[in-house]
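From the pipeline queue, job 12 of 40. The input is one protein chain; the requested action is below.

Action: predict structure.
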Amino acid sequence: SASVSDAHALSQTIHCSTQRHGAALENAPSGQCAQVTFALLPIFTENHTVEMIIHDDYPMSMPFVQFYTPIFHPNIWSGGKVCLGWFEIPYQLSDVCIHLAKMIDYQIYDLSSPANHKAADWARMNPLLFPLTHWSLTGSPTPNGKPAISSLKMVDTKRETIKVDVVITRTGDRYTVEVPLDGLVRHIQDELIEAFKLPRKLENGWSIVYRLYSKSAGKMLDDGLTFRQNDIKDGDTLSFHMEAMAG
């Protein structure tokens, strides 16, 4: 069977099983694919079957993703094809699995250029129905594209959380953010980048890499560990540092 790397990073509410088989979708990219079934607990149980066609040059190219079960989401076309959005390369299959599960649970969605306009309209009209809080629901974007928020909640209230102040070193902006203590830093960090509308590239095309720095611990956070494992405490201040990479 196909292994899902970084299994420890999977959310406590996501159960993922994979089975490797040959590419079955017509005109799909070459390579292998994995069939993934998700069950979201404890709020409700819903099984979804997804096919991921993995390119020969994995992990340097994103997979083709197709839902075989009905799914209503702003970034999933009516036929089941998925717009995954931005991913850092190289990627892990576990990251895609977590991302898809968060899309199902409406933790992740982009209303700026939806694949399903009906789902996008529904999301705008029914924000309080979602089990977890998405950043875009805390306030409307300002004219310059920055989120008009002073605090951010990233997690379900049933999980143990801490509140930290996040400072964007490039601009000096400060936000109070509630994060899951046992959440993997790299996943929360990526959500914060989207929430704060931070650029992914410089004008010269160089990629931007962001890292969280703990003032109290005096070190960069290990994004492969949780906030607890990084010894982050409630009330700590974290700085978002920016590094430019050529190419």
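Job complete. Residues 133-245 form a domain with the Ubiquitin-like (UB roll) fold (CATH 3.10.20.90).
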